[in-house]
Amino acid sequence: MLSRRLLRVKVMQMAYAHHQKGESSIQQTEKELFHSITKSHELYHTFLLLMLELKSFAEKRIELRKQKNRPTEEDLNPNLRFVENALLLQLADNKELLAYNAKNGNPWVNNPEVIKGVFELITKSALYEDYMKTEAGDYDSDVKFIAKLIEKVIAPYEGLYSLFEEQSVYWNDEIEFIISMVVKTVKGFKKENGENEHLLPEFKDEEDQDFVKQLLRKTLLNHKENMELIKKFTKNWDYDRVAYIDIVLMQIAIAEIVEFKNIPVNVSLNEYIEIAKFYSTNKSGLFINGVLDKIVEHLIEQKIINKPGKA
Predict the structure, then answer these.
(1) 172, 158, 228, 241: which is closest to 9 by C-alpha?
(2) CA–CA gap between residue 234 and residue 251 (Å, rounded)
(3) Is the pLDDT of residue 152 over 90?
(4) CA-based angle 230:235:237, to the nearest 5?
(5) How far apart are CA 275 and CA 8, in angstroms?
(6) What are the pLDDT digits (tens) for 119-151?
(7) What is the average pLDDT across 292-297?
(8) Which residue, 59, 2, 56, 18, is CA-closest to 216?
(9) What is the C-alpha radius of gyration for the chain, rounded to an integer number of angstroms?
(10) pLDDT in tens, 202-253
(11) Longest pairwise C-alpha distance within the chain
(12) What's the Cα-to-Cα distance from 132 to each of 126, 144, 238, rounded to whole Å?
């Protein structure tokens, strides 16, 4: 399920923690890595279940209004456009999501205020107001509405970030990645698949699972050799002032470039430069690019690597 970039980020986090602690074995760190990935998959399901909680909240509100002592015409004949959204109805019947919920429990049961806050934000949005005026019956329009609702209205809600960060240390830096996976899932739903629509698995395939496992292992096993390379090509820098996260990212990049023959060099370089821009300093991308370019040239000269992506 996780993109290769997020898998690389996971390895970065684990390698960083491994060296900082100085007491964990490679096996322990590997176990922690896969636990972290499982927690990401949990967050993915938690977000999908949020959509069902919002639907349920809307339904309960409609019923409460009908039971008022003096209900209005609008109370008795409510606009059901949101609660009858075709995508939400399909998601509510999804076998995989229901099985996950039955096994793990409802993650939202103790957070009614968050559900209320998200729903109130939704109902105040122009996107929701415009949607409620449309006619039912267009499945594709319903899917597009939910996807936009997640991206434009729900995703920016700070209350969600605070809650997720409180619930798991693994969720602090990856909420945006997971939301993109949820949106991808929603956009991929097909009407004809009904309740049998597949959700994203923990790993896309065995190749991705092996990739993240080997990347972590090769990074940690070749730590000493890769550190010597980095020091050799940072002689003109004050090594002690280089951000440690940059050092870790370069170690992982070298491991990937050397060990994974089917990944072009430029793909690896671009990935770690982009990760550095997000997780390190403003100048880290440029710094890592310059150092890794020299290291790659050296590895090619030494015939340690010979693969596409670098002339």
Answers:
(1) 172
(2) 13
(3) yes
(4) 95
(5) 9
(6) 999 999 999 999 999 998 899 999 999 999 999
(7) 93
(8) 18
(9) 24
(10) 999 999 999 999 999 999 999 999 999 998 988 776 656 678 899 999 999 9
(11) 84
(12) 10, 14, 60
What type of residue sits at position 282? N
Residues 201, 239: Cα–Cα separation, whole Å:
41
Whole-angstrom distance, CA of residue 109 vs CA of residue 115: 10
Produce one character per residue of 174-186: b if its CB has 16 or more CB atoms within 10 Å, e if not. bbebbbebbbebb
Q: For 246-274, how does the pLDDT look when each residue is reduced to its tens digit (9 = 90+)?
A: 999 999 999 999 999 999 999 999 999 99
Q: CA 148 to CA 179: how far, in whole Å?
A: 12
Tokens 């002339």 found at? 311
Q: What CA–CA distance (Å, rounded) separates 9 from 271?
A: 10
d(CA 148, CA 268) in angstroms, rounded, equals 32
